[in-house]
Design a protein that fits this description.
By secondary structure, the chain is an alpha+beta fold. Helices cover 36% and strands 24% of the residues. The two termini are 38 Å apart.
């Protein structure tokens, strides 16, 4: 049998095809283009990914907030989005005598949350994170699957810190990104220092750009990167972590930015050790960027065979015949009690061979026949092709739970 060509492999692993085939997500014309909905298995992947990010952020000293997806037009005039980014925003909506806008970014909301309380230098760095919705008025021609959508769930965070803390905080954000990529089984294609280009898209403040760029160059010391003009945010330069999909297309997944512009626009300050007001620096960072783009890349990178901790179903138990239903159901209940996502697929779903094939992307398959049922065993088949054989159900569950808990790559490591 010949191996598939690169083009055939790209088509096979296209997240749009796999997403529908594996019942992860879909779209409907009545909802609108660029507005996908998540099916149960896709929702599991999304929820697990979001909880992973929250856990990683909590461990790194972030505090989580919620903020609304709407804001007054005036908010985005202050932030600069209205002047520099309005072509990518949805039109304002009339609300009484005011105009409100679907937010294109979480930054202005977090600036207001910071500004709502006074802060001492002893509180800094203050790390504020949110998995929040935002909206971009993308043209129909560029929309596609989960990679270009109009409703975005963004993994965003803003660190309010002193100037002396900014480089170390940005370096720590890059380290968090690298750790997440290792756990997710993806890799960065390259690092890019995105700088401003020509035109009115960018804030006209040369000193701001010089200071922020110099700090990011310190952050990237020892990291191989490429400086590219015309890719910066409108308010400052950024480090973009680039990924490449199966078709060879490059895109940005994660970012780290140092921002002097918005702290000034929103008149942010903290009280220093001298008792006077000082302006904080705002470090923007996103570990996985938009959840939609992250899941699209994960689908293609793994061909739907997600790492065990992220898989929608982690264990399928297959009773050979009706007589093995009871022990199979018992094994599923024990797996659920351990926090594993487990299902039972009985003979009503087809022959044993058909059920094994249907579970090809599930990390653990446990077959329970008459011999296994009598001895509380399960004949284990791993997704990577290994067959450890008939093992005690307790051992199977302990090993699976350990692999999920540690996010390990080895499905059959010691429990």
């Amino acid at each position: 049998m010949r191996s598939p060509s690169r083009r055939e492999e790209t088509v096979m692993n296209d997240h749009r095809r796999l997403g529908r085939e594996l019942d992860l997500f879909d779209t409907d014309p009545l909802m609108g283009a660029g507005l996908p909905y998540w099916l149960p298995d896709g929702a599991v992947v999304r929820h697990t990914l979001e909880e992973y990010v929250r856990e990683a952020e909590r461990g790194a000293g972030y505090r989580h907030v919620y903020s609304p997806v709407l804001g007054k037009r005036e908010l985005y005039e202050i932030s600069g989005h209205w002047d520099h980014y309005s072509e990518d925003m949805f039109p304002p909506m009339k609300l009484g005598g005011e105009e409100v806008v679907l937010r294109p970014s979480l930054c202005p909301h977090h600036a207001l949350i910071y500004r709502s309380r006074s802060h001492s230098y002893r509180e800094l760095p203050l790390r504020m994170a949110e998995l929040g919705g935002m909206y971009r008025s993308e043209l129909s021609g560029v929309l596609g699957g989960l990679t270009r959508v109009r409703s975005i769930q963004l993994n965003d965070a803003h660190i309010f810190c002193t100037l002396d803390q900014a480089v170390e905080e940005a370096r720590a954000a890059l380290a968090l990104i690298r750790r997440a990529y290792a756990d997710l089984g993806i890799r960065a294609a390259r690092y890019r220092l995105s700088l401003p280009g020509e035109g009115a898209k960018y804030v006209a403040d040369p000193e701001l750009w010089r200071r922020a760029t110099a700090l990011l160059e310190q952050v990237l010391d020892g990291v191989e990167y490429e400086a590219v003009e015309g890719e910066a945010a409108f308010y400052g330069p950024k480090i973009d972590v680039q990924i490449v999909d199966r078709a060879g297309r490059e895109s940005t997944l994660s970012t780290v930015q140092i921002d002097f512009h918005q702290p000034e626009r929103f008149d942010l300050h903290y009280i220093g050790p001298d008792g006077a007001k000082h302006r904080p620096v705002m470090v923007h960072r996103s570990i996985i960027g938009s959840v939609e783009r992250a899941v699209a890349h994960l689908i293609e990178e793994h061909g739907g065979a997600f790492p065990a901790w992220l898989a929608p179903v982690q264990l399928v138990v297959l009773p050979v015949a009706e007589e093995q239903y009871a022990p199979a159901e018992k094994a599923v209940r024990r797996a659920l009690d351990l926090g594993l996502r487990a299902e039972l697929a009985g003979p009503e779903h087809g022959t044993l061979g058909a059920r094994v094939r249907a579970a090809r992307l599930v990390p653990y398959v446990a077959v329970v026949g008459a011999r296994e049922a009598d001895a509380e065993l399960a004949a284990v088949r791993l997704r990577d092709g290994r067959r450890p054989g008939a093992v005690p159900v307790d051992e199977l569950l302990a090993r699976a739970a350990a692999a999920v808990r540690t996010r390990g790559a080895d499905l059959w490591a010691a429990a």
